[in-house]
Amino acid sequence: MSKSKNVWEEFFADKKCGGHRSSAEEFLSKEAREKLYHLNGGKTLLDFGCGAGELLVYYAKEYEKLAGADFSASMLEEARKRALERKCENITLILADDKTIWDKVDSSFDRITAAGVIQYLTYEEIDNFIANASRHLNKGGKIVFFDILDPRLYPLWKMGLFSRKTGLWNILLKTGYEICATASAVLKNRPKDILGYSHNPLKIEKIANKHGFDMEYVQSMYYEYKYHAILS
Ligand SMILES: C[S@@+](CC[C@H](N)C(=O)[O-])C[C@H]1O[C@@H](n2cnc3c(N)ncnc32)[C@H](O)[C@@H]1O
């Protein structure tokens, strides 16, 4: 991973949704249900990189007190509107990044989670994030990173091997398109798309172990090329 975080801060500066496979409420509620299953209880939760609150508002039904943090003001504004519409009075929204968040929270949490976020952090930043998060985690708490790009499955998905049209011609077309899009993004020094970078689960596990956590690796239910890392 070579791009600095500022590139991502710029990328998300005017974004208004989290890039879910579908933005239909029916889909988001199913996705949130899967995530709530893995979060598995607790009363207080920090959703780091909460974006437009598309999952946070569903978490709010199951937790007493929640904080949503994000470095994108436009995303947080969408989250504010969504929380207001659904009368989620138990959510506090915080404008912060992975470094500043820890000085802005005034309590610790039973669950600290991030969905589709750590792909914008380097391994070193993930290491620091886990170190800081562990200091803000209540006894018996969990850190849950959802939907991390799996470096083994992501290229296959990009080539179209998980899609219905898997003919050789389609695979060549998709691969050619990817090569052009990557070259163009590198030349413009801009991210190619919203997906970010992949992280090897074994490396994430090593970092988790270093901080005293066991890590469970779980395949994502709705994104076949992503996985969840559950640290407890
Ligand atoms: C793909 S979106 C996912 C949003 C949300 N978790 C969801 O699932 O709907 C990623 C979000 O992470 C935020 N983000 C990325 N890197 C961040 C960082 N270092 N600090 C704070 N927020 C970050 C982005 O602004 C964006 O809102």
Report on this structure.
The chain contains nine helices and seven strands. The chain has helices spanning 5-12, 25-39, 56-59, 73-85, 101-104, 123-135, 154-158, 168-188, 201-210; strands at residues 44-48, 65-70, 91-95, 109-115, 137-149, 215-219, 226-231. The chain has one domain (5-150, 197-231): Vaccinia Virus protein VP39 (Rossmann fold). Strands 3-2-1-4-5-7-6 form a seven-stranded mixed sheet, sandwiched between helices. By secondary structure, the chain is α/β, with parallel strands linked by helices. Bound molecules: S-adenosylmethionine. S-adenosylmethionine (SAM) is lined by residues 5, 8, 12, 18-19, 49-51, 54-55, 70-72, 75, 97-98, 115-117, 120, 194.
CATH superfamily: Vaccinia Virus protein VP39
Spans of at least 5 consecutive residues whose pLDDT stays below 50 are none
Order of helices and strands: HHEHEHEHEHEHHHEE
Form type: globular
Number of helices: 9
- Report the portion of residues in β strands: 15-25%
The profile of the biggest β sheet is:
7 strands, mixed
Q: What's the end-to-end separation, in Å?
A: 27 Å
Number of E strands: 7
Q: In what order do the strands lie side by side in the largest sheet?
A: 3-2-1-4-5-7-6
Name every ligand kind in the structure: S-adenosylmethionine
Per CATH, the architecture is: 3-Layer(aba) Sandwich
Short summary:
The chain is an alpha/beta fold and 232 residues long. It has 9 helices and 7 strands.
